[in-house]
Amino acid sequence: MSSILTTAGDLTKVKGVFGKNFNTPIYMQFVPGVCVEPIVSTETLKSYDNSKNVNSILAIPHIRKGPKKKRTDCNDTDRYFPLFRGMVEVPAYGDPVLLCDFGGVKYYLGPLNTENNVNFNDDNMSEPEINLSSGNLSREQNEVLAKGESLNFKKINYKRMSKKWNSKLDETKAYKETHGDMIFEGRHGNSIRIGSRSENPYVFISNGRQPQFQQEGFSDGSLIAITNKGSLNQHFGGYYKQEKDDDLSNLLTVNGFTLASDNVTPSENPPNRLMSKLVSSVNGDVNANELIYNYGNIENQNQMLFHSDRITFNSKTDDIYLSSNKDIHIGTKRHLTISTAEDLIIESERIYLGDPNKKEMESMVLGDKLLKILDETLSALSEATSLFYGSALPLTDSTGKSPLSAKLSPIQKQLKQILSTKHKIEQG
Predict the structure, then answer these.
(1) Segments forming the whole domain that contains residue 74
(2) 233 and 165 inside one domain
(3) What is the predicted pLDDT for the residue at 251?
(4) CA-based Rg of the chain, rounded to a whole angstrom?
(5) Both 191 and 296 in a single domain?
(6) β-strand partners of 393
(7) Rounded-to-integer distance, Cα 263 and Cα 241, Å
(8) Are 14 and 8 in contact (CB under 8 A)?
(9) Are 225 and 204 in contact (CB under 8 A)?
(10) Strands 391-394, 251-254: pairing kind
(11) d(CA 208, CA 206)
């Protein structure tokens, strides 16, 4: 039973023609209930190995005709399906829900937000069932079972996400006044936020946020940010770095965002190998902070951030294209490796190995031209002679016994070994 005809006390009490009070039945399309078992896959106990039942639940309505059903007595007649086709949030054991009946099909909405807790909300209309408890468990565990909840569900007090007024991005005269966002919150520190600062839109996808934080930040396990205006530091500011998962009292404050390749100490990496320094150098010694960290201060300076412990791009069957209207910068604290089964082709007007602004930069050598010059030099030396009383004599080695050509000939034969058979460089 889901939708039901019932009365609501004084709210439906009317007077008849003879002054007698009576209750007028009202039709309740949605009835509050509790989830007894969520069917999250065909492996779930009450799925009956039917894929059509995935994401359905077994539930008990709190308002029904006749005696209330016990949780242990629920069967396929107590199955409810998600009300919406393409969007569903499957409840957990003991979650409060709304139940209804349309066209003979039972549906659910929920879980309900009885306590404004993103992790779990108690069903305030349910009564414990002692028969669900076990003598092999602790008192706390038996209390959980008696309420129809799962022992495997980890309750963590994650704070609801909020949106604080941002003095740099919220263009409003009223202090601390801003509008809300559309937020999709998971149970364990994950979320999607679709919102804006003033009329400038953004989308944030966050995962692995710590329970005490109410907004996305650089301390999240992973963060994807799509912004229309504002620098990354303006949106997220400083953040807290948790050194140990179980220690929330000792948080390290980090003032602003820094590229991982530049987040080093002099002992870790020589100062002349910083990505920011090279970026500044190739742009005419422009302030790297302006180029890297302050982008977004102008209207419609759109940018995206991918921030995580590891990022993998994998194209299974076709190409990956990285294209930029200006520069592409790659920085790393350790090694940059490129591996290919065939060719590595770099098409560029100029190629520099090292800082291009250093005065001691030297030009690369063209191997084929060098080979030709060396070969001609050795040939000339081999054929060289000296004049002795008008007679030409071949040059000899330092001993004066062997002709110099005998030593130069083997060297000349090895010259081609200096040329790579695989790697080529453009003339110019």
Answers:
(1) 4-135
(2) yes
(3) 57
(4) 38
(5) yes
(6) 386
(7) 14
(8) no
(9) yes
(10) unpaired
(11) 7
Tell me which amino acid residue 413 is: K
Determine, yes or no, domain membership for 348.
no
Beta strand 21-23 pairing with 26-28:
unpaired
Distance CA 420, CA 326 (A): 33
Mean pLDDT, 10 residues at a time, over the chain (428 residues)? 60 56 67 94 80 94 85 91 93 95 91 94 88 79 89 91 89 77 95 94 96 91 95 80 54 73 70 79 83 87 95 96 93 91 89 78 84 85 72 72 79 83 78
Same domain, residue pair 186 and 261: yes
Mapping DSSP onto H, E and C, the string for 223-279 reads: EEEEECCCCHHHHHCCEEEECCCCCCCCEEEECCCCCHHHCCCCCCCCHHHCHHHHH
CA 294 to chain centre: 22
In a 3-state reduction of DSSP, which class is residue 424?
Answer: coil
Residue 425: inside a domain: no
**Which of 320, 337, 354 is at the close of a domain?**
337
Cα separation, 49 vs 369, in Å, equals: 75
Q: Is 180 helix (H, G, I), strand (E, B) or coil?
A: coil
Q: Is 22 part of any domain?
A: yes
At residue 382, the 3 state secondary structure works out as helix
Q: pLDDT at position 127, please?
A: 86
Do 234 and 179 share a domain, yes or no? yes
CA distance 88 to 103: 20
Report d(CA 62, CA 69) in Å as an integer: 9
Pair (69, 175) in one structural domain = no
Q: What is the layout of strands, in order, in the sheet containing 190-197? A: 182-185, 190-197, 200-207, 222-227, 303-308
Q: What is the distance, to the nearest Å, from the Cα of residue 380 to the centroid of all Cα atoms in its chain? A: 66
Report the domain count for the chain. Answer: 3
- Residue 75 C-beta-side C-alpha neighbours within 13 Å: 2
Tokens at residue 258, please?
């820094």
Of 135, 167, 183, the position where a domain reaches its end is 135
183 and 228 housed in the same domain: yes
Residues 181 and 287 both lie in one domain: yes
State the pLDDT at residue 191: 97
Q: Are both 110 and 174 inside the same structural domain?
A: no
**112 and 96 Cβ atoms separated by less than 8 Å:** yes
Query: Which of 404, 354, 357 minimizes the C-alpha distance to 384?
Result: 404
The pLDDT of residue 24: 62
Q: Is residue 398 part of a domain?
A: yes
How many C-beta neighbours within 10 Å does residue 214 have?
Answer: 14
Inter-residue contact 189 to 215 (CB < 8 Å): no
Amino acid, res. 376: E
pLDDT of residue 285: 79
